[in-house]
Structure formats: C-alpha cells, structure tokens
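Supplementary Methods, section 5.1.

A reviewer requested that the exact input to the structure prediction be made available. We therefore reproduce it here, unchanged from the version used in the analyses.
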Amino acid sequence: MKKIILLLLILSIFIVSCTKSAQQPLDPTEPANPPIAAESMPSSQEISEQSTPPSPKLEQQQPKQPPQLTWKLGEVAIAGTYADAEIVELGNDNYRMYYSIEPEVPGNKLEVFSATSTDGINWNKEEGIRKEFATFPDIVKLPDGRFRMYFQNAGVIKSATSHDGLIWIDDPGIRIDKIELGFKLEDVGAQGTIRLEDGTYIMAYRGTVNEPYRTAEKIPNKDTHIYFWATSKDGLAFEKKGLAIDSRNDVLLGAADGAEWVRWDHATGKIELRVYFWSYAGIYHVTYQDGTFSEPVFDFTNNQDKMAKFPPNPPADPTL
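The structure derived from this sequence is encoded token-by-token as follows.
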C-alpha cells in the first residue's frame, strides 16, 4: 500500500477550540452546540457494582515515550476556520480531503467541504457543500466502489453513501447511539472507521461524559472524553465492544479526541493497524491487534514551552 504521510500538513489548519464535543442541531435556525444537562461519570466502584468490568483484552494504558520524535511541522494545507479533516485515496495519485466548518463560526450549518490534491501537499478546494449538519466526517471506501461517510448528528453517529464522493444520500437509522454500559454519555462522535481485509468494519468512537477528569490540578475541559469501539459485518449494524482508549489517567488527563485509523507499513513489510488521536500534550497513537488496543505512544507536539502542561494551541485532529 502506498503510504502518504499528511499528518502535520493537516494539523496546522485547525484551531484547538473545536473540542469535538459538539452536538448537532436538527433545526438549522437553532445555534450549534446547546449546553446539555450534566450527569456524573460513574466511579470505578459503581461500574463494578453494575457488573461491567473492564474488557479483559484492554491493556493498562500508560503512554510510552519513543526514543525521538519523527514528525516535523509542515505548512498550511487549507486556510480558514475549519477542522476534522479526512483524506481519501482516489487512485492514480489523486486524493480528496473532507473538512468541516468549525462549530463556533456564527451562522454555520455544520457544513462539510472538500478539496483535491495530486501530491497530498497542495490542495484545490472543490465548489459546493458536500453535506450539512454533519461533523467529524469519516470516509470508508466500499467494495462496490461507493463511499460511506460516518458523521455525528444530534449527538449520535449516522452515515450516508455516495457514488462519486460529492453527492451524499443519508442511510436510514443510527450507527452508534449514546447508550454505553456503565457510563452516562452526553454524546458520541469523533469516530474513526476502517474496513479490514476480511470485510469487518471497526469503529473507534469518542464518548463524552459531562464531568471534568478529577485530579488535583485544574483541567481546561469541562468534559471527559473516552474512546470505545464497535465492529460490523456490513458497515451499518454495529456491535459495541467496550473501552478502546481510556483517558482517565495522569497522562491523558481525561482528554482523547480525533481518532484516525491507519494501516502503517513498516520497512520490514509488517502492516500494523494504528489509531492516532490527540490529547493535551499533542498527538498519540495506539496499535490494534486481535481485539486488543495497546498502550498509547506519544508522537508529536508543537509546544515550545516544556513547562506548559496545557499548551494553548496543541496539534489536533490528526489525519494521515
């Protein structure tokens, strides 16, 4: 598989103010992201009492530090108030990027736009709007050549299909709802989806708990973001599997967002499935194998102040 590394080019176009906790309105006249009544995150004891022990395949997650950073800051790819980029390989060295308007932009309709490139560096915006009232566009190419977009709408994950990647028709129903055993979630979203060679779809999706991570120091976010995962045979009906990335530790401090699946080709020929995501310190990844998500590995930050635990503008929303 030809690997194009685009992460840092895309990171530079986004503003971290988009925390991916937006809940999309169904009525275009209503403002985006209305506040939702908070419900307390269950404690470990409460979860145990509900007979919801951690997944036996979930490893204890304490991020490893690589010997050196291998990523370098790139240039702006798409300038403007955009976020949540997703890149699709079209073939013949052609690529399409989908990206969303930031929810904080006044008067927006949560639009998704697109641009094309032949090198993954220089991008040309395409005319028109790909979709409205959809955030976190996440695209999978189907076996028949069509495309499926997963997106967040009204706090849940839905999907749409397209023959050309430009005109999208909504699929009926909901792919992932807010019900998660042992948790009270405000919404789900910021998902990343991949289709394996055996036809299985795996989705990693973020659940928002409307309560800050509890620690001795003050946490910037009012919410805690935790990643769960689910599988599907047809890309429409998903079976929830439990925790994937648990951010409730002294490293991630309750923040995990922007999941992006990558088939990572090693020089040895080994192919590794990775999920990249971001937290306060910068970009991390975990590896997935046989139902197990590894410990997070720290990859990159643009923070020049080594003493700043919560830098004002860390890299976010990775896409590769």
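The radius of gyration is 19 Å. These observations are discussed further in the main text.
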